Amino acid sequence: MTKKSMGIHHITAVVGNPQENVDFYAGVLGLRLVKQTVNFDDPGTYHLYFGNEEAEPGTIITFFPWGDAYKGRIGDGQVGVTTYVVPPGALDFWENRLAGFDIPATKSERFGEQYLSFDDPHGLHLEIVARQDGRDSTWSFGVIGPDKAIKGFGGATLYSSNAEKTAELLETGMGLERVGEESDLIRFRSTSEIGNIIDLKKARSKAGKLGVGTVHHIAWRAKDNEDQLDWKRHIENFGLGVTPVQDRNYFNAIYFREYGDILFEIATDSPGFAIDEPQEALGEKLMLPQQYEQNRARLQQELEPIQVRVLD
To answer: Residue ranges of the VOC domain (predicted)?
Structure first.
């Protein structure tokens, strides 16, 4: 029986200055900063997580802020566009809000839906779509109430260096339903109500170059450790090399690069982000994995201080 992915767990990107990152995703977009930690492979760099109030899978975008890193190039082998979903009727609010911060945005339509497209301060391509699917956010920030707030991911647009093979993997390997084609895009849907729509660009472009303003990887959901190991065996049957399980504190992760050179991760829903700090205090202070706790004083001196600010 074909395994069926629940959809996106999280998306991780490389950005620049960490305070600019916080100001945009919390201050402008109204997401909750749910975790301040460090890059486990580069502890002198933050790993910042933003999501909904409960820090649920399907809402989490994470960042490695490398302030002095080189600029990347969005292209094949990457997530090209990250999509957020808001309640029906909220697009006008977001168009006006972005304009109020002098953020250029354009409207477009595909698959019968209206999209608002814009870039973050470091060049990541983002868009907002209004849909009924998925429960409304319970997080309020400044003038952004639950009736306007981002629910989580609407999905993503994948730029593949081999769209035909990526499409085959999404459908037969990941169990996504192929629901339509329009111009240069193939649309797939997962079983969840959020983080569930994947558009795959058919045409080739230049190869992407990892750096500031690009997505590092897209992570798909596994229910638990057992389900994740089942996914590992399943993906290996497609001839793709999958890493051993990596402990990321808040989830376990396995990684593989699919046929079109996009880095995929499969991450467990559990244990979640409240294992080391109370739910009501998520993201309020620096949380370190056990192996770096002895270096806390030094790391806090090296890491640029950040704060969540209301920017209305």
So the answer is: 7-131, 152-269
- Establish if 46 belongs to a structural domain: yes
Cα distance between residue 23 and residue 26, in whole Å? 6
pTM, 2 dp: 0.97
Alpha carbon distance 106, 283 (integer Å): 32
**Residue 231 lies in domain:** 8-302
Q: Quick check: helix, strand or coil at residue 161?
A: coil
Q: Which residues touch 214 (CB under 8 Å, ≥6 apart)?
A: 13, 14, 72, 73, 74, 78, 123, 124, 208
Count: domains in the chain? 1
- DSSP symbol at 163: H
CA dihedral in degrees (161, 165, 166, 172; nearest 10)?
A: 180
8 Å CB contact between 257 and 217: no
Q: What is the CATH number of the domain that holds 229?
A: 3.10.180.10
Task: Give the DSSP H or E segment for 297.
Answer: helix 296-302
Q: Please give the C-alpha separations between residue 103 and each of 24, 96, 120, 153, 208, in angstroms, as whole numbers.
A: 11, 10, 8, 20, 24
309 assigned to some structural domain: no
How does pLDDT run along the chain (312 residues), one tens digit per residue?
579 999 999 999 999 999 999 999 999 999 999 999 999 988 999 999 999 999 999 999 999 999 888 999 999 999 999 999 999 999 999 999 999 999 999 999 999 999 999 999 999 999 999 999 999 999 999 999 999 999 999 999 999 999 999 999 999 999 999 999 999 999 999 999 999 999 999 999 999 999 999 999 999 999 999 999 999 999 999 999 999 999 999 999 999 999 999 999 999 999 999 999 999 999 999 999 999 999 999 999 999 999 999 998
